[in-house]
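Both lines are given unchanged directly below:

***
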Amino acid sequence: MINSSIILEKALKQGFNPSIRQEYHHNHSEISLSQYSRNCRKQLYEENINVKKIYLDIKYWIYLRDVYLNNTNEPAKIELYKCIDSLANSNKIICPISIAHLAELEKIKDIEKRNPIIYLMNKYSKSVCFYFFFDRITEEIISFFFANNFCESKKDWKVYAIDKIGRLYGTPSPHIINLNVEDNFRYQKYFYDLLSYIDVSDFLWMEPDKSDFDYKMEVIKLACKHNEEKKKVKYLKFKDSLINEIAGFINKADKLIIDAYHYVANSNEKLSSEQIQLLKNLIINSFDYMEADTAVLMPAIYTQSCLNAYFMKRIEEDYSGNDINDFLHATIDASYCDYMFTEKKLSNIINHHKDIKIIKYFNTAVEYKVDEVIEILKTI
C-alpha cells in the first residue's frame, strides 16, 4: 500500500491542484463515486480516441527491455524498439496493460530483469490499462441490452474499457472517522483523483511477491481442469461448441446480468429467477442466430468462448499453462486493441481458423513475426 502523502507529493509535482478538485467535488456532491469513475473512464477514452492501441505480448516487452539495456545487437529488435519509441513519443500509439500483464511480471523473479520492463510498460502504456474482466463483461451486456430496445439511447462498451492503472489497482480510499457521510463521499472522489497520478512503477517497482501464491502453478491447475472437462465433451460442430461455451458462461453470470439490467433500467427492482433466465436466453439465442451483430456488442465473451471451443474440439491437444495466459490476454487485446502482437500459436489460431471470426468482426491486426510487426508499425 502506498502512503497517501507520497501520492499527494507526486500529484503536486505533476500539476495537481487540491483546491480546485475539492471545490469541484463540493459543488457536485450529487455524483456518486461509481458514476464519477465512469465519467473519468469516458474522458480517458475520448482523450485517446484517435490513438492506436497496441497489445504487446510479454515476449515483446522482453525484446524492448533487451534493447533498452543494450543487451542485444539483433537488428530486428533494435528496429522494433525504435518504431515503438518513436510512435509513443509522438502520441500515435499507446500499449495498454492488463491484469494478465501484471501476472506475467510476477513470474520474473530477477529484479534486474523485471524492473526495466516495468519502466517501459509505464512509458509506453502512459499508465493506461484495461478495466477488470467482469466489469468489462458487464459493460458489454449493458451495450447489448441498450441495442435490443431496452432504451432508445445506446452505449458503446469501448467507452468504459480503459482506466488509469492507479485508479484501478492503487491504494483504497481511507475512511475519515471525523467526517460525515457526505464529506466522506467527497473525499473518496478527491482521493480517486489523486490515484490518477500513480503509475506502474509506483506499486510494482518492488521485491517480487514472496507469498505462497504461485501463478505459474495456478494456471497449470486451471489447464488440467479444462483438460479433464474436455474428456467429457462429445464431438460437436464448431458453432455448437461455441454456443455451448457462451451458454456455460452466461448461465453463471447472474450478478453481471442483474447489474447490467439495473443500470439500463435505472431501477433496483428485484428480478425473479424466470426473468433472469429470459435475459440469459436472449443473449445466448442472439449469439446463435445473429452471431456477427451480437459478437460486436460482446467481444470479450465471444473471444473467450471461441478459444475455448477451439480447444474443446481438438481432442488430441491439451491445454497448457501458456494457453491459459494467452486466453487471458486475448479476451482483451483481440477485440479491444487495433493491433495484437502475440505468440505464434495464438496468432495462427485467430488468423487461420475458418470459424473464428475475431479479425472479421473487430478488424484487429494479429501478428507474431517481428519483421511483420515492424512493417505494420511503419504504416501507423
About this structure: The chain has two domains: 4-133+156-204, 215-368. The first strand starts at residue 52 and ends at 56. Residues 215-368 form one domain.
